[in-house]
Amino acid sequence: MKSLKSLGFAGLIATMALGGALHAQAPAATPATASPTATATTPASGQAAATATTKDAAAPAAAAPADSAAATPAPAASKIPEFYQPTPGIGQPTDKISLQPQVTDLGLFAQHFDTALIWVITAISLFVLLLLAIVIVRYNRRANPTPSRTSHNTAIEIVWTVAPVLILLCIAVPSIKLLARQYATPKPDLTVKVIGHQWYWSYQYPDNGDFEVVSNILTDAQDKAKGEPRQLGVDARMVVPVDSVIKIITTSDDVIHSFAVPAFWTKMDAVPGRLNETWFKVNRPGLYYGQCSELCGARHGYMPIAVEVVSKQQFAQWVAANGGTMPGAAKPASSDATANSPISNPPAGTANPEPGAGAPTTATENSTAAATPASQAATTN
Ligand SMILES: [Cu+2]
């Protein structure tokens, strides 16, 4: 920074160039803030939206469960274990103007880089402010009636070209390093296929017998009862082991969604007909929330993501509760030869015994799934 002070007016030009460059950096440095913003800007009540959807879509669906509920006993919802309660300030939006506390090495690297960039931005802004102040005071018409007629100065022109280039290089090196690390998945310990639907998520575990978890938003009342942050609680969480490289493959059933968990520094679009890949390795167990981060329709704001990071023993317990197997363990005899085919979908109803969660496997999956929170509220309360 000392050398900058000697640049004089060169700094002004340097800063203009750099300002543009910092803008270009913004996408890499901001994924983590997207979700909290989304939360803040979705004031419309989940209840209201659910009711609205129910009107056109759920009328037949609401009638059907009423009959079948009497005939067949509801599956035991408590069989799938949940290990962690939400921790205020961790893995969910905070009221601070900063990134969420990061729980992956990549996230910590990004957080430090973000802090460093703030200092660079502040220093340059103050420097430019100082230059402007000098110009206003010293070179106004009264103080400097006969202006200099200088039009070229080779030395200063070289300086104000080279200095911004050097500053940009200092920013570009860690920035590209961060980007590269985000896209280079280390050898994975577990692969989870994340599928976006209008408007819920499902998670498939191909390494564990290819079972599937269907994850729907909870109602506000259910969130309150369970102590979960409003509009972030789900009926079935995605569960992964701690200190393990989790390879995430995203795709979509209908439109483009985006799987984003700010505390992991993870965000990847889920595009129909494509498989995208990203990864994370979480350092500490806990419950972390995210949201769909690509505008995907009417209930885009109501398809939260809840990832539970647990010990390896707890993960094995959770997999067993979902009817899956751990790698190396004997696979249970499957009545359906195609059950583990990568092409066919596993029976979602068996993976998630929550009432209404099995609905997405039917042909009317969008309409019934959208109505799920409403019908759950009606049947469980
Ligand atoms: Cu979405």
Give me some keywords for this one.
Immunoglobulin-like, 381 residues, alpha+beta, disordered N terminus, 10 strands, 10 helices
List the helices and strands and how they pair.
Elements: H1 2-5, H2 10-29, H3 31-40, H4 46-71, H5 105-138, H6 154-183, E1 190-197, E2 200-205, E3 211-215, H7 220-226, E4 238-241, E5 246-252, E6 257-261, E7 266-270, E8 276-280, E9 286-292, E10 304-310, H8 312-321, H9 348-351, H10 365-380
Parallel strand pairs: 1-5, 4-10
Antiparallel strand pairs: 1-2, 2-3, 5-8, 6-7, 6-9, 9-10
Helix pairs in contact: 2-5, 2-6, 4-10, 5-6
The structure holds copper (II) ion.
Residues 196, 257, 292, 294, 296, 300, 303 line the site of copper (II) ion.
CATH fold topology of the largest domain: Immunoglobulin-like
End-to-end distance, in Å? 63 Å
Q: Report strand order across the widest sheet.
A: 3-2-1-5-8
Low confidence ranges: 1-78, 334-381
Q: What do these coordinates show?
A:
- With 381 residues, the protein is α+β, with helices and mostly antiparallel strands.
- The protein has two domains: 2-34 and 97-144 and 152-183, no CATH class; 66-87 and 186-329 and 339-380, Cupredoxins -  blue copper proteins (Immunoglobulin-like).
- Helix content is 42%, strand content 15%.
- It contains ten helices and ten strands.
- The protein has helices spanning 2-5, 10-29, 31-40, 46-71, 105-138, 154-183, 220-226, 312-321, 348-351, 365-380, and strands at 190-197, 200-205, 211-215, 238-241, 246-252, 257-261, 266-270, 276-280, 286-292, 304-310.
- A five-stranded mixed beta sheet has the order 3-2-1-5-8, with helices on one face. It has a five-stranded mixed beta sheet with strand order 4-10-9-6-7.
- A hairpin with a 4-residue loop joins strand 6 and strand 7.
- Helix 2 packs parallel to helix 6 (154-183).
- The longest helix has 34 residues, at 105-138.
- Bound molecules: copper (II) ion.
